[in-house]
Amino acid sequence: MCGIFAYAGNDNCTKVIIDGLKSLEYRGYDSWGIALRTKDKITLRKNVGKVSEINELESVDADMGIGHTRWATHGNVTVENSHPHSDSEKRVYVVHNGIIENVKELKEYVPGDVFYSKTDTEIIPKLIARFMESSSFPDAVKKVVGMLKGNFAFVAIAKNSEYLIAARNGSPIVAAKHNQNFYISSDLQSLTPYSETALFIDDGELLIYDSQSHAIEFYDFINNKRIQKEAQTYDVNFMNCDRGSYKHFMLKEIFEQPEKLKATFDVNVVNGEIRFHYAIDPSQFKHVQRIVIIACGTSWHAGLVAEYWFESLVKIPVEVEYASEFRYRNPVIDRNTLIIAISQSGETADTIAGIKEAKKNGAQVLSICNVPGSTITRISDATVYTQAGPEIGVASTKAFTTQLEVLFLLTLMIAHYRNKINDTELKNYLDHLVQIPEKMNKVLINTEQIISIMQTHYIVSNALFLGRGVNYPIALEGALKLKEISYIHAEGYPAAEMKHGPIALIDRNMPTVFICIKDHSYDKVLSNIEEVKARDGIVIAVANDEDQRIGELADHVVFIPETIVELSPFLTVVPLQLLAYHIADKRGCNIDKPRNLAKSVTVE
Ligand code: M6R
């Protein structure tokens, strides 16, 4: 959450930083600010609102600067609380992501200092300035980082100092150098226009850039020693973020799903054999007795779908945990537990902490991730990349379906290796999987029914989503999509749970969305639909083509092509994504940047 962009060099500093912040705005968009250093002073500009709304900002003839786009954690969305923050004498300026937990204790080191904001950030420049009374700027930062508790990444500049300094402990920050230009960002993606190599700053490290000599020093502030690091290459082609002719990134990303699924399949399946790009040898799964999947939000829903697949095809026990709970639960895991961490961004704070917890207990961690070079890919034992390309809309769509595809391939690979499925069965599953993109296209071109549902129901305040088996997590996902972008309250449940409480809510003002495909629980879901109708409820169903029974019962039906039950989530989720999108659009919501949300949740 929040975006940091810093620059030192001869280009137009104001423009480079504002452009950098615009590309990071999906991380936070409450307010923004920049501090620009000229020879003898630092100029500060900040405001509430979005960086993208800045039309013209007079350039300052600066050679260095830091910028920030904010997602509020401490203090309201106000100009005072937006970053950069400085000490009272305006000598040191800092932009910061994450949370400093021991601000109260730290304030004792700056007695009498006036705090102008409600943030946890302002303490950092104040402490640095205090230590600069007897130390150099880099030495003062070295002293301060050792005192901070919590997860953070920050960048600092100081008046009359040639140094640009970045620190990391738990929040992402990365740098790049190109000739005599130096960039620091909270997100590798925003560095792609400038360099094909990156300097990854790891937890417990400081990077000190000398803008005069262009020297770079890495410093391990846990062990108090200098360290050597080289720039690493990364996949720049990953980062193409053009919205094209679509009204929103989310709509574009929904429509990209068939193509991205095909890409994910093609990368990982070669001549009918599943071969993960990043060399996971199936023998690694020989000793696995249990799988624990950790993730958050939509990625957690992908894990829930996979739980059904692993248990029915591989026949080993699976638990799917919210990473935020797993990390603090003293989980029982050992070397025979395979941890699968799922994350689009690869920067979700709780998932990162969950991985570290698992590794501490000797478990192997396999991550499924979308962003090359992200923290999760660097701390996991192995990573399989979803080939979704950059996902900009805060509501996850194509990342979800490509995660599902990797998880299904992984299920097949382990099941085949353990002789739970034979060659013919493997081929059969792959044959069905390869047909999914074409079937999904059929759902995507048939949006008339979804638009008509949207027109009748976009004004509701509550909605219920019900599904069973492998489509229960899709009900959760449909509810999450609707609530996060349209602000309509929505809940997902296993359909049979309806009678244990949610049915009390049913009336003609609350639509119930049923996922009702032809599987073993079809008749039971039909009974649930009858129960809703008997209470004057409105039923919207997602059902298989030519299902006449549903047509007679439900108020609205969105038909989807048939596939095997296991793969139905790929198709049932699409109408729910589209429904959420069109309702949110009709309600005039800010779809790609919903209120209070950010794309990467880098604080716990
Ligand atoms: O980047 P991650 O997959 O780790 O993110 C997890 C969640 O924050 C994310 O899925 C969130 O729930 C989305 N806004 C859902 O659309």
Describe this structure in words.
This protein has 604 residues and is an alpha/beta fold. The chain has 3 domains: 3-238, Aminohydrolase, N-terminal nucleophile (Ntn) domain (Glutamine Phosphoribosylpyrophosphate, subunit 1, domain 1), CATH 3.60.20.10; 241-434, Glucose-6-phosphate isomerase like protein, domain 1 (Rossmann fold), CATH 3.40.50.10490; 441-594, Rossmann fold. It has 18 helices and 27 strands. Strands 3-2-4-1-10-9-11-15 form an 8-stranded antiparallel sheet, covered by helices on one side. A 7-stranded antiparallel sheet has the order 5-6-7-8-12-13-14. Strands 19-18-20-21-22 form a 5-stranded parallel sheet, sandwiched between helices. Strand 16 and strand 17 (273-274) form a beta hairpin. The termini are close together. 5-amino-5-deoxy-1-O-phosphono-D-mannitol binds next to helix 7 and helix 15.
Please outline the helices and strands.
Elements (H helix, E strand, L loop, with lengths): L2 E6 L4 H12 L6 E7 L4 E7 L15 E7 L14 E2 L5 E9 L2 H4 L16 H9 L5 H9 L4 E9 L4 E7 L4 E5 L2 E5 L11 E4 L4 E6 L5 E5 L4 E3 L4 E2 L15 H7 L1 H12 E2 L2 E2 L15 E6 L1 H18 L3 E5 H4 L10 E7 L5 H12 L3 E6 L5 H5 L2 E4 L12 H20 L5 H12 L1 H10 L2 H10 L4 E6 L4 H15 L2 E6 L16 E6 L5 H12 L4 E7 L3 H6 L2 E5 L7 H19 L18
Parallel strand pairs: 18-19, 18-20, 20-21, 21-22, 23-24, 23-25, 25-26, 26-27
Antiparallel strand pairs: 1-4, 1-10, 2-3, 2-4, 5-6, 6-7, 7-8, 8-12, 9-10, 9-11, 11-15, 12-13, 13-14, 16-17
Bound molecules: 5-amino-5-deoxy-1-O-phosphono-D-mannitol (M6R).
5-amino-5-deoxy-1-O-phosphono-D-mannitol binds next to helix 7 and helix 15.
